[in-house]
Write a structure and sequence with these properties.
Order of helices and strands: HH
Radius of gyration: 40 Å
Number of strands: 0
Number of helices: 2
Largest sheet: none
Low-confidence stretches: none
């Protein structure tokens, strides 16, 4: 055997080893991808189910509260009117107070600030 023959045989062996290793790595990568894809799909399905369940519970709670409020308003119209009037008065009072505070701040900002004379 010559040096060239040995080198060619060695090169072929190395190429075969690389091809075999590449095939094995590709198979492992494909299996890992499939496993990850399945895990993500399962997690997405569970999340979707949990969100749908929470939305249904929220919708039921809001519906129940709305029905209860409507029934209470119908049963006690005088009390409802008093509560609404009280809330409106509180909001109007807060708005009036805020406007007075803003007015005082504007007046204070408009007044020139003169430092005391040093006599």
């Amino acid at each position: 055997m010559t040096n060239t023959t040995i080198t060619n045989d060695t090169a072929k062996d190395i190429a075969n080893d690389v091809a075999e290793t590449s095939g094995t790595l590709a198979e492992k990568a494909s299996a890992t991808y499939a496993s990850a894809k399945e895990s993500v799909s399962d997690a997405a399905a569970k999340s979707r189910d949990a969100v749908a369940d929470a939305a249904a519970k929220s919708r039921d709670a809001v519906s129940s509260a709305a029905k209860s409020t409507a029934e209470t308003v119908k049963a006690h119209p005088g009390a409802t009117a008093a509560i609404v009037a009280g809330a409106a008065a509180a909001i109007a009072g807060a708005a009036f107070g805020a406007s007075k505070l803003i007015e005082k701040k504007r007046e204070a900002d408009a007044t020139p600030k003169v430092p005391p004379s040093a006599t």
